[in-house]
Specification:
The chain is mainly α. About 75% of the residues lie in helices and about 0% in strands. It is a multi-pass membrane protein.
């Protein structure tokens, strides 16, 4: 569709995404280190959401330039940087109070990505084409890596006996951190170098050369890509800073509502995964289900593979404990997620039923988070 109206909307979107990251950075400089009244905190929250949406746009521009699956990987890593920074900064502020924050946030990220984003992608993709088709080789490898990382980092601490409670001993924590980094590195190498074709849509290899040339002509210019990369970094810094600034207000709201402290981890995960969710939903609506699954499982993997080593390193100078072990109900949900995900991935095809099943698992997690 071409004409004056779409061109005006496109120009307005470009101006909005160009202006919001610097605006968010300026607001961060004004409110940093201050106790915010509720009205100012609400304004900061709105700017924070806008900065997240701007980050989505600029990450998609860069991702379009570098292509799949590197583009999905770039967005996953960018979002995980936000998550790691938020967890570490909040734990530094109050290590004993936020001892379970890393566990709660990482597990919430796994449930949101593996059930929420995956479910939405399968549901939207299959509603448009009756059956959503994806590459089982790459998607299965990603799910297996996520399941292994989650088990080694979040399930095992609940069963070890070297230390009391659901904690790792220093040796065990070192092993889990190194294993997470190694597995994540192996996956990135597999996804982007050795077996890149496993993470591309099944029909991509059948696309005619003329279409490929057309796609090349639509790529962003080097100048546009560089601008988006810089603004993406500015937006990410602003998101981290503003989230830290408004987090005391969110914590007071959670306490006033009588909700469990673990809800704070769910809030953080929902915030940092908003870019991934929007990007994945857009991809699914364009019949690019594989891209959405790459985003979902890549985010889950990056969330564990980068966050656990980061908080393990931070625990060296933090005075409080680092609790990583999941509760019994969360272990059941993790096992159910892996089982359902495996049955979904094996055929390489999914109907709306599979999407609904994943979303129902996420709904169960949310209910138990609010009412354990």
């Amino acid at each position: 569709m071409t004409g004056p109206l779409p061109q005006m909307l496109s120009a307005a979107l470009r101006r909005w995404t160009l202006l919001l990251p610097p605006l968010a950075a300026v607001l961060l400089a004004l409110v940093w280190g201050r106790t915010l009244p509720n009205a100012v905190a609400a304004l900061a929250g709105l700017v924070l959401v806008g900065a997240v949406l701007a980050a989505v746009h600029h990450a998609e521009v860069v991702a379009h330039r570098v292509g799949e699956p590197l583009g999905s990987l770039l967005l996953a890593v960018a979002v995980t940087v936000i998550e790691v920074a938020l967890i570490v900064t909040l734990m530094v502020d109050s290590a004993s109070k936020n001892a379970t924050l890393a566990r709660d946030t990482v597990f919430a990220a796994v449930m949101i990505t593996c059930n929420g984003i995956v479910g939405l992608c399968l549901l939207l993709g299959s509603l448009r084409t009756r059956v959503a088709v994806f590459n089982p080789e790459g998607t299965g490898a990603a799910l297996a890596t996520v399941a292994t990382l989650a088990t080694l980092s979040l399930a095992l601490p609940s069963f070890t006996t070297s230390t009391p409670g659901p904690d790792f001993s220093p040796t065990q924590l070192t092993f889990a951190s190194v294993a997470a980094l190694v597995l994540y590195g192996l996956f990135v190498t597999t996804q982007t170098v050795r077996h890149r074709e496993y993470f591309l849509p099944p029909e991509l290899t059948d696309r005619p050369t003329a279409d490929d040339q057309h796609d090349e002509s639509q790529l962003p210019t080097n100048r546009e890509t560089t601008t988006s990369l810089v603004l993406l970094l500015v937006a990410l810094v602003a998101v981290v800073g503003l989230a830290k600034t408004v987090s005391p207000t969110i914590e007071r709201g959670v306490t006033a509502a009588g909700l469990p402290a673990s809800v704070m981890g769910v809030v953080i995960a929902m915030l940092v995964l908003l870019p991934e969710t929007i990007a994945a939903v857009r991809a699914a609506r364009r019949d690019e289900v594989q891209t959405g699954l790459n985003l979902a499982l890549g985010s889950a993997m990056a969330s564990i593979g980068l966050t656990i080593p980061a908080v393990a390193l931070a625990s060296i100078w933090l005075s409080g404990p680092l609790v990583l072990g999941l509760s019994a109900s969360h272990l059941v949900l993790l096992a159910l997620t892996v089982a359902v995900g495996t049955l979904t991935v094996i055929p390489g095809r999914a109907t709306p039923l599979q999407g609904g099943v994943h979303l129902s698992v996420l709904a169960g997690y949310v209910v138990l988070a609010v009412s354990p």
